[in-house]
Amino acid sequence: MAKASYYKGDFEWAKTQLKVLKSSATQLIANDAQDLYLLITDNAIEDSTYTGLKAFARAELLHYQNRNTEALAAYDSLLVSQKGKSIEDEALLAQAILFEKNKEFNKAEQNYIKITTLHKEDILADDAFYRLGNLYATVLNQPEKAKIQYEQIIFNFADSIFYVEAQQKYRKLRGDAIN
What count of Cα atoms within 13 Å lies in the side-chain half-sphere of residue 51? Predict the structure, then answer.
């Protein structure tokens, strides 16, 4: 129900519902609720009218409905209208994931690079470094570039949920014997 409120643009009601879900005994539900709650609150600070967040919710709904061409167009429009705003990194990441799904790997790479250069201090930077590393390692066959991305996580994001995996993948690419 909270997600439906979010998609409709009723962010205050969605936040009320998400506060309850965050305390859920089911960890997966609580994590999803926390992520959505943070998305709404983080982007409300800069945009009290929720203009960017409404556009992002619309694009996410199209993505959820597998209307991928329309979703990509919605993300493009959002990235033009919200350039430099707090929602930009979320839109770049969501669009990159959709590009990967559509096997448009070079476009995904470009989006991840934008996040890692323009938003390297934001909360999604480690996601972008990790996903870019995986893209280089598994799809684009550029292991040296992959190592650089994993190094960024190891040296700059020690508290990242990707830290341990980045270490393992880095060591594997380096040729270390892994137990």
Answer: 12
- The tens digit of pLDDT for each residue in 47-91 reads 888 999 999 999 999 999 999 999 999 999 999 999 999 999 999
Task: Map residue 119 onto helix, strand or coil.
Answer: coil
Are 2 and 17 in contact by the 8 Å Cβ rule? The answer is yes
For residues 109 and 131, the answer to whether their CB atoms sit within 8 Å is: no
- pTM for the model stands at 0.91
CB hemisphere CA count around 118 (13 angstroms): 16
CA separation for the pair 122, 102 (Å, rounded): 26
Spans of all domains in the chain = 123-179
* Number of helical (H) and strand (E) elements in the chain, helices listed first: 10, 0
